[in-house]
Structure formats: C-alpha cells, structure tokens
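Narrative of activities, Objective 1.

The group set out to show that a structural description can be obtained from nothing but a protein's sequence at a throughput compatible with the screening campaign. Below is one input-output pair from the validation batch, recorded exactly as produced.
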Amino acid sequence: MSRIGRLPVTIPEGVEVKIKGNHVHVKGPKGELEHFFPADMKITQKEGEIIVTRPSDEKSHRAFHGMTRSLINNMIVGVKDGFEKVLEINGVGYRAELEGENLVLNVGYSHPVTIKPPEGIEFEVDARTRQIVVKGYDKQVVGHIAAVIRKVRPPEPYKGKGIKYLDEHIRRKAGKAGRVQSYG
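Output recorded for this entry:
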C-alpha cells in the first residue's frame, strides 16, 4: 500500500468536511474548497478522520491513492492555516510595491508589471528585505501565482539579478575570463 495514501487525514476543530461519493467539500476559517477525485478511490469519514482506500494494486490506482490523500490533506491545512510562498528580489533598482490589492513590479523593464491577485490570494511586500509573500488557502493557486511572479524576471546566472524563491539556490556562472596575451 501507499505509505502516504494509507495515513488517515485528521480533521481539526473549526473545519467542516462533506463527502458525497468522490466529491469533497471542505470549509474552514480561511475559506472553502471543493474537489472531485477519481471515481475509483473510496473516501470515507470516521471519527474525525478521513480515510482513502483503493480497489486494487493496479499502477494507476496506486498513483491516485497517495495523490488523493495528499490533496485532501492540503485542502484541510489550507482552510485551517493557509499556505504562503516567499519570493526575493535581487538587483539594483528592482523593487515591488502594493497598489491597493495589486502587486506592482519594477524590475528593469521600460514599464511596471502589475499582477492582480485572484480570489483567495493576497500579497505582502517588505521593502526593507525586498521580499514578496504570496498567501492563500489553496496550495495550487499560491504556487501558481508565485511562479507567475518569478517568471516576470527569472534570476540570471551571472549576477543573480531577478526574482527568486527565498529558499532557491541560483547556480552562478563565471563571467568572461579575460583574454590572455602572448608576447613573442
């Protein structure tokens, strides 16, 4: 059995879960999420826990088993605590600021780049540390918006200028070595 799939998902206080067949609806203090899962997976709720079981050891069933359990867990953690991704801006003159809810990036282009947050997403900008925090209750949307922000100006390998994730390591390249002259 899947090591991840066989673990039960505990339902914390303040989170309400409704299961109808393969449709799961989760409601909590941060928001509410719903998702349709593969029809083969059996999702049951017992005594404050959600248990996911699979019908057979077929390769597709094994793959869906762990994924279904992880997605349900992410939904519950998201509506209870929320998720966040932190990005860092490196480069002379590069900066980010909030204009209402929108994120405005000045990262070396002739124009500022404005990113509007979708529903359930909010931005925080710390000008002193040059960090952007993307917060939300849907893990997939938080990751997607963080990737969209990073794509505006990905870090380059020579000087490290650009927008990167806080925990990301940029492999640096050596610049030109200079031309060695030979006399003679």
